[in-house]
Amino acid sequence: MPFWDKHIETLPRNELEDLQVKRLKDTVARCRKTVFYRNRLKSVDESQFSTPEDVSVIPFTTKDDLRANYDFGLVTVPREEIVRMHSSSGTTGKATVIFHTIKDIETWADLVARCIVMAGANRADVFQNIISYGMFTGGLGLHYGAERVGMLTIPSGVGNTKRQIQLMHDFNTTVFHATPSYILYVSEVMVREGFDPKEFDLRIGFVGAEPHSEQTRQRIEDILDINAFNSYGMSELNGPGVAFECEQKSGMHIWEDSYLLEVVNPDTCEVLAPGEEGELVVTTLNREAMPILRYRTGDLARIVDDGEECSCGRTHVRISRIKGRCDDMLIVKGVNMYPSQIEDVLMSFPEVATSYQIIMDRAGKKALDSLTVQVELYPKMFDGDLKKLRTLETDITRSVQDEIVVRPKIEFLEPGSLPRSEGKAVRVVDKRGEM
Ligand code: DLL
Q1: Of ligand 1's atoms, which has the minimum distance to the CA of residue 88?
Q2: 293 in the same domain as 365
């Protein structure tokens, strides 16, 4: 089984934890160079740290802290040493910006190279990076990692879907990187353009940057006849290359020599045991320009706790698929749910095509919440057989209700009816605040 850096990827747990403690102490000391952390860390004595769990005496860092320190407030190196800036993709509030030194860029490329090789790709592959370049970290993040591995890298970015397909065809692309929603759209266009999606040389896909269910992964794999690997990251922690699946696909290995992970109860902030679902809190252990301590990611997941080390041989813990962000939680008729739960149900129906949208509204005299799920179906479902459609509607309604308790209204649409996104898909429309 191939490794990019076998020594560090298979480091025995005790050595890995010693390395974490050492790097944590260095990181805390480095953070003190900023006014913000100097004040925050007044009562912290890192020289006393002896286990990674000692991180819990450090206060959390939040997105608001990053915003409050806009622009260079959390930078620990002279301005001349910064070579790159990225920004988080959030659409509300002030942007959060992240800075990197040349060493940070190299460390990041190395982490991404580990992911690429872990998924089974190598320098003989042709890699098409079908994701946005620019301030978003998905493009340049994978680009540098892929070049480091030595793959022929096509920086095709997003959009111009027919051209993407043409490139795949002409240059025999074997590996791609995309958001799950966009690659599913690409596969629809392939069919529309008269291609069989399985006829390409594609063999591996890196999919991430947005929540998606196991069923969606299987869809992507079946339609394109590839192996798809889940990729997790966020700009504040570099971008992609934080956690990634190995060939076992039983959780994403988080690179613990570079990221110290905790899972906390998002309401009480209490640190949870492995296996319990909560908010991921991450401390960077290997960053120069802008280290971050105990960052509240807002993402919900759990540490995979099956009592066994992964059979791939890597000792770094695995995290589950991301359920969503804490603020993605929908409350309809007083019931809490996540869009990913609905996606899971929809994608288990073979009649359902690749796109859907959840609409929440409030109407009628009593102004009760309503939940409508618009679902695109494959063309074969629109052959005039209404009985078939009604049966499907009943089945989907029941299955969604079983999952989320609330009874949804299901609306069927022809493929291509819903707006398509080239990056992160918009799955939820909340009209309840509108007059
Ligand atoms: O999305 C970095 C990235 C690029 C990851 C390409 C993977 C591939 P941001 O734009 O800062 O960075 O958004 C980060 O996206 O906090 C999660 O909520 C969500 N997210 C990222 N990867 C996954 C995933 C990039 N595999 C935010 N599953 C994160 C679910 C994901 N959600």
Answers
A1: 11
A2: no
